[in-house]
Amino acid sequence: MVKNTSRRRKRHFMVINLIKKCKNNANVSNGTSTISESKLSENLKSYGFNQQETVSNSLVGNRITDIETLSNVFSELSCLKGYNNDIFLFKDSKYGLCSDFTLKCSKCDFLKGFSSTQKTLNVPEVNARFVYGMRQIGKGFSSAYKFCATLNLPALSKSGYKKHENRLLKVVTDVAEDSMCNAAKEVAETLNRNECGVSVDGTWQLDLEVMSPYCPTCRKLQKMHKNAEYVALKADHICQCNYEGSSAEMESVGAHRIFSR
């Protein structure tokens, strides 16, 4: 037998209304329990809800929400002034994944604006998190644009994306340097010396060392006759070969040279 889900939804909204009424009665009575409040508390318990847990369980974080679904939900709400079910959702502006909305009643002058995300120094938090998340997985603007297009999300412009990258660069650099300094101090205090082993990965470039076991000019000189052209080329030549050994050892030798500077 199929369960009646619509009745559950009505009961859920009834419970929320009971919670609000119970909370309002508690504020009016200044801590004095009334008969109505006691009845409401009993009703809450009969539904299997704990008032304290339900009220304190606040939602946090970000969600991907369909605008049409959100608009339909607001259309079912009553206006705070005229108590009419004529609330409409309008989009005022957008910047990347952040949108500014306005709730408006068609029968009175009720107007309420809000943003889809929190802002720090007038910078939408969701945009900064999105750009930082793309950098965390090694992707750039093109991948971010395709991702937003696939999910039907508004995307940052290329200039806006680069602006967020530049803002994040300084912050990430400062945090990385502080983290490495703290790690070095911790190792020095633990081992009572400054020398310690390090793990090196050649993927992310903070510094570089150009190494090559081959020089094309030297190879060319070996095949040339010792004439005037040979002498001139050899005099102006700076050999590019600065490593002798296997390719497997090249990364470790390069890391040692970087740390020895």
UniProtKB/TrEMBL annotation:
Residues 61-205 form the Mutator-like transposase domain. It comes from the Eukaryota. Pfam families: Mutator. This is Mutator-like transposase domain-containing protein. The gene is AVEN_182213_1.
